[in-house]
Design a protein that fits this description.
37% strand; mainly beta; 67 residues; three-stranded antiparallel sheet; single chain; extended
């Protein structure tokens, strides 16, 4: 069997994201991603995290439009 090593490339550094007020967006434990609906002709990409039943963590959905 032959294998091809998958390459990876950083598309977005989540630590650079900001809230509307300019404060850093708290991002925790992103576990899943999927394409969502098309909005204004652009696809959406949705990231999700859960709280792992831990009161120190939180459930979160972050959505982006994709050009």
């Amino acid at each position: 069997a032959s294998f091809v090593i998958a390459e990876r490339r950083l598309l977005l550094d989540l630590s650079t994201l900001k809230n509307d007020d300019g404060s850093p967006l708290a991002v925790d434990n992103i576990e899943g991603l999927t394409f969502g609906p098309t909005v204004n002709g652009k696809r959406t990409l949705v990231l999700v995290s859960d709280n792992n039943f831990n009161p120190e963590q939180f459930t979160q959905f972050v959505a982006f439009t994709v050009d």
